Amino acid sequence: MEKLINDFSFGLFFWQAIVLVVLILLLRKFAWKPILDSLNSREEGIKDALLSAENARKEMQNLHADNEKLLNEARAQRDAMLKEARELKEKVVLEATEEAQTKADKIVANAQVIIQNEKNAAMVDLKNQVATLSIEIAEKVIREQLSTTEKQHKLVEDMLADVTLK
Amino acid sequence: MKKDNTVRILLAVFIVLFSVNTFAQDHEVEHGENTELESHEGPGAVDTKEEVADYIDHHLQDSHSFNFFSDGATGEHYGFPLPVILWDNGLKAFSSSEFHHGETLAIIDGQHYKLYHNKIYKTNAEGTITYGEDGYPTNAKPLDFSITKNVLAMLLVSLLMFIIFKGLASSYKNKDIPSGFGRVLEPLVIYVRDDIAKPNIGPKYRKYMGFLLTVFFFILILNLLGLTPLGINVTGNIAVTFCLALATFFIVQFSGNKHYWKHIFWMPGVPIPMKIVLMPIEILGMLTKPFALMIRLFANMTAGHVVVMSLLGLIVIFQNWIAGPAFFGFTLFISIIELLVAFLQAYIFTLLSALYIGMAVEDHDHHPNDHSDDIPVI
């Protein structure tokens, strides 16, 4: 203990005290404060970044779910539209076929009517011609038969023969 | 990956320091026979037990000159003198070379000063030292404010700390993560903050970070420096540890809130006679805490130096081919332990300072009868 007391150097203590106080004050101002502030702000930054990353992840998840939903809806819509289109197509084709059939039928019917009419007209014409021809022939025959007086008398006689007085 | 790098850098630092240390030991072994012996008594060989003990004693003390080594045969010292500043009826400053390593008296303004066991005494013209009953000189001592080896080391370490931590601080201006040596320092700073200050002091820790960080790095660097061949033993000096402990003491007392003082002078929750008995104990505890801090650091560092140097001294004393390598191996082993101790003591000093501050600033919002956390001094 005496040795310790004898060894105690007041000068060293004095310098140590000054050095310590000055060092603490200087380092506090120029080193520790900026270092700790930077560390704090960096840690805050990391915390914020992690939080926002987590939020982004959640948002992403939501978005993904939304997308999935939208996709499903779109798919369903597409299917529905396709189905509708198919049906429409079938309907249109059917209608067109039907319409074409009716039109064709109508055309055929018209054609038949016209053919009938033409046929009738032709028949009438033919009949007329036949009649004219027949009259001409008859005229010629008659003219032949009645060309002489004898023949006229003969006819009259024949006719008269047929006519019997009742 | 980053952690790996840090570990690697730390390891590299250790290896460098350690190799320098062992180099120094080799060096000292080589010069073992003719290294200086108590420079104030002139050169001589360090061969016997007493001489080794004296040499160790000499090493543990502060010095007025910075000696790297001395040649015992020729009496030459390799180093440089340091300024001596005395307050003895006025300021007196001169170079320690005036003492010629203790071999002559320094005569300043007609006053004779003698360097004896690294202390400056006033003597008569013959340099007579009178001894008291306890074996210590009774000569008058002038107030010695010399820039001794330890003061120089302290100043250099302070400068070094200022430069490296200013550098660390400014490295944050450009980017978030420091590069190079800052990667070693940053984890230590974070360690002091997260594992020493925060858990022990609580939410008010920020106010004490300046003190804790400064003290931690100051002790750590000086401890490590003590392991180098420079032969600096600052933290193993009682005046230094006294000052550090005193700083903790004052900070604790000035931070103490009313709960702290109430616990000391009028312990709540115990009967009145107990309060009276406890008061002096608590007041004593107030003082024993920093006292323990002072002694712990001093004793640990001194013991480390003594053990390392004693083992080296054993090589010199035995002087044979078996003991040499064996004690060299021991020294190596102890040096590694000392490296651990250097960190450990810096940590413990800071931790206990933080703990004491924490006890002083703690808010006692809990049940008044619950004193389970009133941990006594260690």
From TrEMBL, chain A:
Domain of life: Bacteria
Topology with respect to the bilayer: Single-pass membrane protein
Protein keywords: ATP synthesis, Cell membrane, CF(0), Coiled coil, Hydrogen ion transport, Ion transport, Membrane, Transmembrane, Transmembrane helix, Transport
GO molecular function, one term: proton-transporting ATPase activity, rotational mechanism
InterPro entries referenced in this protein's UniProt entry, alphabetically: ATP_synth_B-like_membr_sf, ATP_synth_b/b'su_bac/chlpt, ATP_synth_F0_bsu_bac, ATP_synthase_B_chain
Gene3D superfamilies, per the entry: F1F0 ATP synthase subunit B, membrane domain
GO cellular component: endomembrane system; plasma membrane; proton-transporting ATP synthase complex
Cell location: Cell membrane; Endomembrane system
Record-stated family: Belongs to the ATPase B chain family.
The protein's role, per its UniProt record: F(1)F(0) ATP synthase produces ATP from ADP in the presence of a proton or sodium gradient. F-type ATPases consist of two structural domains, F(1) containing the extramembraneous catalytic core and F(0) containing the membrane proton channel, linked together by a central stalk and a peripheral stalk. During catalysis, ATP synthesis in the catalytic domain of F(1) is coupled via a rotary mechanism of the central stalk subunits to proton translocation.
Protein name in the entry: ATP synthase subunit b
Organism expressing this protein natively: Gillisia mitskevichiae
From TrEMBL, chain B:
InterPro entries from the UniProt entry: ATP_synth_F0_asu, ATP_synth_F0_asu_bact/mt, F0_ATP_A_sf
Gene Ontology CC, one term: proton-transporting ATP synthase complex
Pfam families assigned to the protein according to its UniProt record, in alphabetical order: ATP-synt_A
Membrane topology summary: Multi-pass membrane protein
SUPFAM superfamilies according to UniProt: F1F0 ATP synthase subunit A
Keywords linked to the UniProt accession: ATP synthesis, Cell membrane, CF(0), Hydrogen ion transport, Ion transport, Membrane, Signal, Transmembrane, Transmembrane helix, Transport
Compartments, record wording: Cell membrane; Membrane
Membrane spanning residue stretches: 151-169, 208-228, 234-252, 264-287, 293-318, 330-357
Signal peptide location: 1-24
GO molecular function: proton-transporting ATP synthase activity, rotational mechanism
Family: Belongs to the ATPase A chain family.
Known function: Key component of the proton channel; it plays a direct role in the translocation of protons across the membrane.
Protein name, UniProt field: ATP synthase subunit a
